[in-house]
Amino acid sequence: MAIIKANNLIKTYADPDSNGKKFNAVDGVSLSIHTGEIFGILGPNGAGKTTTLEMLEGLKDIDAGSASINSIDISKNPYKVKEFIGVQLQANEYFDNMTLSELLNLFSALYNKKNDSLSLLKKVNLTDKANSYANELSGGQKQRFSIACALVNDPLVLFLDEPTTGLDPQAKRSLWDLIMNLNNLGMTIILTTHNMEEAQNLCDRIAIMDYGKIIAEDTPRELISKHAPERQKEVVSGNMEDVFMALTGHGLRD
Ligand code: ADP
Question: In this structure, which residue's CA is closest to atom 10 in ligand 1?
């Protein structure tokens, strides 16, 4: 069953390069994300991934098209939708003078939830940091803590915007494990990434996005066999990098 449905989503911005002209940062995106899947939106910087996510999270207005989560229309009921989604943003700032445990208790209280901070920290493997401050954490620990914050309201759907960008390989692996554990507990996860390996290893299905449009969507295995079959023969298995190149004719711009 689809828990997230998006139909022809459009977000229009003024183009900074041309006077007054507008462009569609998200240009007719339709998605159907099933309950219990890890769904990845893969694309280069500027493709429109974050903007798509922000519209689904109710953080940015949907200029045209429609979307629903758990059958609730996001434009009509943005506050209702926020009750059952968890959102991890690309960058987070926390109060410097509160411990992780105190911050989680505060966020739980804001949601009127009684989630125990230690059990939340346990989920993200940070119990030993309960009395630390956010500015004392490593990059990977910070990301895991921001996921704990996104879990305070027991969300059905967790949104992760480029969760592993900037992390070292070990921290990245540990975050992948965490994401898979949460998914095994039944949470639907939608994430954006420009990391081919992450999309291939972590996601049940991937939508490849370029210039505001979804240009392909399938399981990693099907994408490879459809778009990079030759590479598959050559090196035993092709990868998402080959698929992206075959579809767009270019690599990831950065
Ligand atoms: P991605 O997440 O794939 O890197 P974004 O969704 O952040 O892409 O951005 C898509 C496009 O929209 C980019 O060209 C970006 O510069 C532009 N954009 C994003 N936010 C704004 C904004 N608030 N005003 C104008 N342009 C924006």
Answer: 48
**DSSP classification of residue 44:** -
Q: Which tokens belong to 29?
A: 């995106």
Q: Is the Cβ–Cβ distance between 194 and 175 less than 8 Å? A: no
Tell me which DSSP letter residue 49 carries: H
Residue 233: left if φ>0, alpha if ψ -120 to 50, beta else—which one?
A: alpha
Give me the helices (H) in 12-138, please: 49-56, 78-83, 100-110, 117-123
Residues with a CB atom less than 6 Å from ligand 1 = 13, 25, 43, 45-51
For the domain spanning 2-84+155-248, the CATH number is 3.40.50.300
- Residue 145: C-alpha distances to residues 114, 135, 182 (Å): 18, 11, 14
Distance (angstroms) between ligand 1 centre and the Cα of 214 equals 15
Domain ranges of the chain: 2-84+155-248
pLDDT in tens, 95-136: 778 999 999 999 898 888 888 999 999 999 999 999 999 999
pTM of this prediction?
0.90
